[in-house]
From TrEMBL:
HAMAP family linked to this entry: DapA (MF_00418)
Catalytic site positions: Y156, K184
EC category: lyase
EC numbers, comma separated: 4.3.3.7
InterPro entries per UniProt: Aldolase_TIM, DapA, DapA-like, Schiff_base-form_aldolases_AS, Schiff_base-form_aldolases_CS
Protein's job: Catalyzes the condensation of (S)-aspartate-beta-semialdehyde [(S)-ASA] and pyruvate to 4-hydroxy-tetrahydrodipicolinate (HTPA).
Molecular function per GO: 4-hydroxy-tetrahydrodipicolinate synthase activity
Protein name per Swiss-Prot or TrEMBL: 4-hydroxy-tetrahydrodipicolinate synthase
This protein's pathway: Amino-acid biosynthesis; L-lysine biosynthesis via DAP pathway; (S)-tetrahydrodipicolinate from L-aspartate: step 3/4
Reactions this protein catalyses: L-aspartate 4-semialdehyde + pyruvate = (2S,4S)-4-hydroxy-2,3,4,5-tetrahydrodipicolinate + H2O + H(+)
Annotated positions binding pyruvate: T68, V224
Location within or outside the cell: Cytoplasm
Organism: Streptomyces avermitilis
PROSITE patterns: DHDPS_1 (PS00665), DHDPS_2 (PS00666)
Gene of this entry: dapA1
């Protein structure tokens, strides 16, 4: 099967480096929202326009159908259609990582194969949730997915949502698989992360916007950011400043984003809700969220817009 984008050739998957090491999907990735029409159907034209904007403003890659992309409430067909539409929009300018994780290994394999056919460069695979499998079963799940598809895997470690951690020892064993290449790290355990970084070549991407600089400076590959939906250039500038040898500037840029990060990610509403509210105020593709999520209120959207304007006015 012909692969696309940065996965088209093995050496292209490994040539982009950072001060810390290899970044197989680029450094600056956005956990892209899934735009819907006002009627709640998939907005493929909006997805193309948003993807083009994100890449034009600094994103090396886009992660589709993750938490921010409302993967629990989109259908298998919608997930595949989204990958195809975004690939059409960005071509080879950016990598596409498709979220395929479910609580069911067999279903995840099916989604992985469909994402490969649709043109994804990699797969984001979350720890199986709800059933809370032991570590041996978690490891077997990821190995089964990696064996089934020709695409590289990003392990998604987010125990606050799944109820199950990918323990550092499990990560170290999984790193031996040739197609398990990266981690989206939402475990809030820098000690555990550093233990894995010290013993493997896994590329670590923080999925927590407040950790962008902290993980990067500790040897991470970059980030998968939700807030980058609205401020892709600002988050890219944090990494650029660090790579240019100006950690003080990188720290100032990270700190400058804290008010918006806190309001979008830690103020009681999911990042999907706040991202869509702010994108809507900016006149960018977004649309409603799907139930059981509910839209942000006007006051919340007003506050987000004010913080966004403050951030970009000094960026």
């Amino acid at each position: 099967m012909e692969l696309h984008g940065r996965a088209a050739e093995t050496d292209r998957m490994t040539t982009q480096g950072t001060a810390q090491g290899t970044a197989p999907f680029g450094r600056a990735l956005c956990a892209m929202i899934t735009p819907f029409t006002a009627a709640g159907t998939l907005d493929l034209d909006g997805a193309r326009r948003l993807a083009d904007r994100l890449v034009s403003e600094g994103c090396d890659g886009l992660v589709l159908s993750g938490t921010t992309g409302e993967s629990p409430t989109t259908t298998d067909a919608e997930k595949s259609a989204l990958v195809r539409a975004v690939r059409e929009a960005v071509g080879d300018r950016a990598s596409i990582v498709a979220g395929v994780g479910t609580a069911d290994t067999r279903h995840t394999v099916e989604l992985a194969l469909e994402a490969e056919k649709a043109g994804a460069d990699g797969l984001l695979v979350v720890t199986p949730y709800y059933s809370r499998p032991p570590q041996e079963a978690v490891e077997a799940h990821f190995r089964d997915i990696a064996d089934a598809s020709g695409l590289p895997l990003v392990l998604y470690d987010i125990p606050g949502r799944t109820g199950t951690r990918i323990e550092p020892a499990t990560m170290i064993r999984l790193a031996e698989h040739p197609r398990i290449v990266a981690v989206k790290d939402c475990a809030y355990d820098l000690l555990g992360t550093q233990k894995v970084l010290a013993r493997t070549e896994l590329a670590y991407y923080t999925g927590c916007d407040e950790y962008v600089l902290a993980l990067y400076a500790s040897g991470g590959a970059g980030y998968v950011s939700t807030v980058a939906n609205v401020a892709p250039g600002h988050f890219r500038s944090i990494l650029d400043a660090f790579d240019a040898g100006d950690p003080a500037l990188a720290a100032r840029l990270q700190q400058r984003a804290v008010p918006l990060i806190e309001s979008m990610m830690a103020a009681g509403l999911p990042g999907t809700v706040t991202s869509k509210a702010l994108l809507g105020r900016l006149g960018l593709p977004s649309g409603p969220v799907r139930a059981p999520l509910r839209p942000a209120g006007r006051e919340t959207a007003d506050g987000l817009l004010a913080l966004y304007e403050e951030l970009v006015s000094v960026s």
